[in-house]
Amino acid sequence: MQAPSGAPLICAALRLFRSACGARPSSSGTVSMEKARLTPFPREQAAARICMVSSFATDLLEIKSKEPSLHVLVIPGNPGIAAFYKDFVEALYENLDGQASITAVGHISHSQKDSEHGRLFSMHEQIDHKVDFIEQELQHSEQSIVLVGHSIGAYIGLEVFKRLQNKIKMFVGLYPFLKLNKNSVTQSAIGYIARSSLLSKGVSLFASFIGSLQPSIIRGIVRRFLGPSWSVAAVDVACCHLLKYHTMRNVLFMAMTEFQKLTEEPDWMFVRAKEDKIAFLFGVDDHWGPLSHLEEISKRAPGVTLSVETEGHTHGYCCNEPGSFWVADYVANFIKTQKRH
């Protein structure tokens, strides 16, 4: 079986996707926070299930606490595949001493099964979807809700916070993508592909072609393009969920709508109004959330809790265990500090 014509362009697109995920070998660096526990075993296992939210099949990854004092909702980046966050969800549950229920809510049609029959969903529709999930599933919950958003999930989380201010206790943005970075070649290239229906279809077709190969071949290709730092579990998730035509089409369509919206400035008035309930974690070398954006937040909303991770983890922290454990430790520490105030 031969690859479709245009494969070199598609391979280049996959390399761009690798860059978008921040895939690179992890390296050590200066420690700016308390080290995370890197081997929290045995630990409570997160369970996957499908929930219908406003008639849309929604992938969830969750751990339910027996006596929860709060509920943490994790909003993925793009790809919005909840299963990528398994290590993070489990580590966060442990670091919160089992006293919080944790749920990662996947984006519509970023999934193994094409339940929506090829329909494409914009970022705005994904925001509505997260609001609908909270109103449907947590309407009668007595626990406080903490939103944790990764990458574009940080932007989505802020929008959800704005709409449900009476329900949300605090918000944490991880490696946040809040506005376009005009200096990023990767963002420019992804934007170019996402804006072209022809290129988006080509990338998606080639992804589905790879996904149709024998499992051992698929894993080898994924590890080759996405890097050796990815865990075995993350590689398996990419093979089973990402390499689908409908998923890749939705990833690129959502990216197009992200880039259109993020030409605008964030809602600084809202961020200032809630600055004591908001935290952002930035990476040292992250083109999605460069340190210049951290500096702008510090000027616009000086009460926001701002931190920089300097241990060599990447934008795609959730795709390996060390990154997942370290970031989970950071989030848990922020939540515990806020609860004491």
TrEMBL record:
Q: Which domain of life is it from?
A: Eukaryota
Q: Which GO terms describe its molecular function?
A: hydrolase activity
Per the UniProt record, one Pfam family is: LIDHydrolase
Compartmental location: Lipid droplet
Q: Coiled-coil regions in this chain?
A: none
Transit peptide as UniProt keyword: no
Q: Which UniProt keywords apply?
A: Hydrolase, Lipid droplet, Signal
Please state the span of the N-terminal signal peptide per the UniProt entry.
1-22
Q: Which GO terms describe its cellular component?
A: lipid droplet
Family as reported in the entry's similarity comment? Belongs to the AB hydrolase superfamily. LDAH family.
Provide the protein name: Lipid droplet-associated hydrolase
Q: Which organism is it from?
A: Urochloa decumbens
